[in-house]
Amino acid sequence: MLEMRPGCECCDKDLPAEAPGAYICSFECTFCAACAEGPLGRRCPNCGGDLLSRPTRAAALLERYPASAKRVFKGRP
Q1: How is the chain split into domains, by residue range?
Q2: What is the tens place of the pLDDT at every residue in 7-28?
Q3: What is the model's pTM?
Q4: Residue 62 to residue 66: CA distance in whole angstroms
Q5: Cα 20 to Cα 13, 24, 47, 53, 57, distances in angstroms
Q6: How many beta carbons lie within 10 A of that of residue 9, not counting itself?
Q7: Which of 17, 51, 62, 63 is the most exposed place for a label (fewest CB within 10 A)?
C-alpha cells in the first residue's frame, strides 16, 4: 500500500492523500505537480526514476487506511 506522504520534498507544499496533484517515483519520493513538471522534469532527484501521477485515496478509506504523517523535506535540488 502506498504511504501517501503528506508534502512535496522540494517546496513542502501540502499534498492531501484524497487530492490529485502529487507525483511519486518507485521509492515513493513525493513531489507536487509544479516541482515535478517544472524544475525536476518528471525525474526524481533522489533516484533518477520517473515521476508519475500518484493515485488518490478515497476520503472514505482514509480512516481505515490512513495516509502517512511522515514529512520529507529536502528543499530544491
Answers
A1: 1-63
A2: 999 999 999 999 999 999 999 9
A3: 0.90
A4: 5
A5: 13, 12, 23, 8, 9
A6: 23
A7: 63
